[in-house]
Amino acid sequence: QQQVKQSPQSLIVQKGGISIINCAYENTAFDYFPWYQQFPGKGPALLIAIRPDVSEKKEGRFTISFNKSAKQFSLHIMDSQPGDSATYFCAASWENRDDKIIFGKGTRLHILP
Amino acid sequence: DGGITQSPKYLFRKEGQNVTLSCEQNLNHDAMYWYRQDPGQGLRLIYYSQIVNDFQKGDIAEGYSVSREKKESFPLTVTSAQKNPTAFYLCASSPRPPGEGQPQHFGDGTRLSIL
């Protein structure tokens, strides 16, 4: 019940295309859903995050879509660039109740030049 | 610049040897975390600490130990009891609790290999 399931495991997209990564959760107590971006040899860094009272959040080329009834959320990267090639992790936590974040297993994204 | 410093970047361990990974933060964060990252496994929580002199086991604590004597420091010891220690280890910190506007910040990791 504490799992966050992420798909696909790897993704190849042409430059300029749309990259889509999906995540699903079971625990309805989760109330904070961040996405982290990790480059090789580096630690993950927060990319964008959303709360379940919002259906969509956009920051530049990055958009989170959230479907509370389906318990699913996704990251869309518009106009994907080679510099976006990285591993992406979705995550979930209980804000103000717990100090743990539950991470998905990650998606390795490669943007073809 | 505020951040998290992990050292060393690469570490080699002989069979039967304990090794300690360093993690220092100057973000004034109360909570600190250790994760293990293996290919295709995501980030698995080893230990976390919410306050000085207190820490809790995560999902894969066996074969590891930690201490939290100072707010800034959260070293991880990989003991000889950890049979498969080869991995990328990540330290993180956050204000308590992590949430909107208070994300976890990560160091750049230590890659541990067995000789």
Q: Could you explain the architecture of this structure?
A:
- The complex is a heterodimer of chains A (113) and B (115).
- With 113 residues, chain A is an all-beta fold.
- Chain A has no helices and eleven strands.
- In chain A, the strands form two sheets. In chain A, strands 2, 4, 5, 9, 10 and 11 form a six-stranded mixed β-sheet that branches. Chain A has a five-stranded antiparallel β-sheet with strand order 1-3-8-7-6, with no helix packed on it.
- The model of chain A has no long low-confidence stretch (mean pLDDT 93).
- Chain B is mostly beta strands and 115 residues long.
- Helix content of chain B is 0%, strand content 50%.
- Chain B contains no helices and eleven strands.
- In chain B, strands 2, 4, 5, 6, 9, 10 and 11 form a seven-stranded mixed β-sheet that branches. A four-stranded antiparallel β-sheet of chain B has the order 1-3-8-7, with no helix packed on it.
- Chain B is globular, with a radius of gyration of 13 Å.
- The relative contact order of chain B is 0.32.
Q: How would a crystallographer describe the biggest sheet of chain B?
A: 7 strands, mixed
Order of helices and strands of chain A: EEEEEEEEEEE
Q: Estimate the strand proportion of chain A.
A: over 45%
* Class from helix and strand fractions of chain A: mainly beta
Which two protein chains have the largest interface (Cβ within 8 Å of the partner's Cβ), and how many residues from each? A-B, 27 and 25 residues
Which stretches of chain A of 5+ consecutive residues score pLDDT under 50? none
Give the radius of gyration of chain B.
13 Å
Averaging pLDDT over every residue of chain A, what do you get? 93
DSSP helical segment count of chain A: 0
Major sheet details of chain A: 6 strands, mixed
Given the C-alpha coordinates, what overall shape of chain B results?
globular
Structural class of chain B: mainly beta
Strand tally of chain A is 11
List the total number of helices of chain B.
0
Q: How big is the Rg of chain A? A: 13 Å
Report the sheet-strand fraction of chain B.
Answer: over 45%
Q: Span between N and C termini of chain B?
A: 35 Å
- Extract low-pLDDT stretches of chain B: none
Kindly report the oligomeric state of this protein. Answer: heterodimer
Helix content of chain A: under 10%
